[in-house]
Amino acid sequence: MTCNRHDFSAPKYFSMQKWQVEGKAAFLMDHPFMFCSVVDGSGAFIHDGAG
Q1: pTM for the full model?
Q2: What pLDDT score does 51 carry?
Q3: What distance lies between CA 11 and its chain's CA centroid?
């Protein structure tokens, strides 16, 4: 599994990052919401066992 992160911006209320993930990865959700998109290939987002 590989996981690389690139930060585009990180102001006070919004940040934009690009994650390149190969294999499975787990992320800590340390904010009240998180918007994620799979832009190439396929993927699934699972939160508390539901995806």
Answers
A1: 0.52
A2: 58
A3: 17
The pLDDT value given to residue 1:
62
Which residues face 20 on adjacent strands? 4
Q: By the 8 A CB rule, do 23 and 40 touch?
A: no
Show Cβ contacts of residue 8 under 8 Å, excluding neighbours closer than 6 positions.
15, 16, 17, 18
Residue appearing with tokens 């832009």 = 39
Task: Tell how far CA 42 is from the center of its chain.
Answer: 13
Q: Taking the CB of residue 3, how many other CB atoms lie within 10 A of it?
A: 13
Cβ within 8 Å of residue 10, ≥6 positions away: none
